[in-house]
Amino acid sequence: MRRKLLSIGAVVLLLLGSSCYTTEHTVGGGPTGLGTEETRSWWALFGLVSLNPGFDSQELAGNSTSYKITTQVTFGDLLFNLFTLPLTITSKTIRVER
């Protein structure tokens, strides 16, 4: 019985743990197929302090007035975060489609 409870507890922890997620913001009419730029955003104290505060998605978009910004924690970010989490540092991937 105890082993079964531990197994159920482990499954619940895995389901409630950190996972991949995506947020999208469309500017203007959305992407027009002019290209894609991607960068990684680093954060300390579990997302409270930006380690690259000068980042601006408009720089990735260039002169485009219509584009889509996708911010996501990918599987690769989760792998990085496994090693940097003890230092309270996490990362997110930011993609701008023009």
Summarize the structure.
The chain is α+β, with helices and mostly antiparallel strands and 98 residues long.
Kindly list the characteristics that best describe this protein.
alpha+beta; 98 residues; 5-stranded antiparallel beta sheet; 3 helices
Cα distance, first to last residue? 56 Å
Low-confidence stretches: none
As a whole number of angstroms, the C-alpha radius of gyration is 18 Å
Summarize the biggest pleated sheet.
5 strands, antiparallel
Give the H and E element order.
HEEEHEHE
Biggest sheet strand line-up: 1-4-5-2-3
Q: Helix/strand/pairing class, anyone?
A: alpha+beta
Helix % is: 25-40%
β-strand number: 5
Report the average pLDDT across residues. 83
In DSSP terms, counting alpha (H) and pi (I) runs of 4 or more, how many helices?
3
Overall, the morphology is: elongated
In percent terms, what proportion of residues is strand? 25-35%
User: What is the count of structural domains?
Assistant: 1
Structure in words:
There is one protein chain. The protein has 98 residues and is an alpha+beta fold. The chain has helices at 2-16, 57-61, 75-84; strands at 21-27, 36-44, 49-50, 67-73, 90-97. It has one domain (20-97). The chain has a five-stranded antiparallel beta sheet with strand order 1-4-5-2-3. The longest helix has 15 residues, at 2-16. The mean pLDDT is 83.
